[in-house]
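Deliverable D4.2, example record:
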Amino acid sequence: MTLHVSPAGIPDAAVFDAIRAELKRQQDQIELIASENIVSEAVLAAQGSVLTNKYAEGLPGRRYYGGCEHVDVVEEIAIARARELFGAGFANVQPHSGAQANGAVMMALLQPGDTILGMSLAAG
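Output generated by the structure prediction step:
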């Protein structure tokens, strides 16, 4: 993988150097953190597009905010490709996080005022 950003594209030299150093770290080491992923150059290009500026909560055609028609096109393409790849009748290509999972469990199981124990990151 190459760095497709030049120092001219990132006028802050310190930020550019940090990005370049992170690329080198990723190329020179094996990443064993399950939640980290080395994406393809195509994914990097897509995430570096104007689509990254758009907040598109909800499902295609049923977003909470307007102006999502172009994001909907891209998401529908991803859904169709995932369905074909896995031979599935449905696919959800929206990312999920540990924070979302925690929130769902807490909302389902806890009452206001309940006490919970949260493990430190070091504990996994």
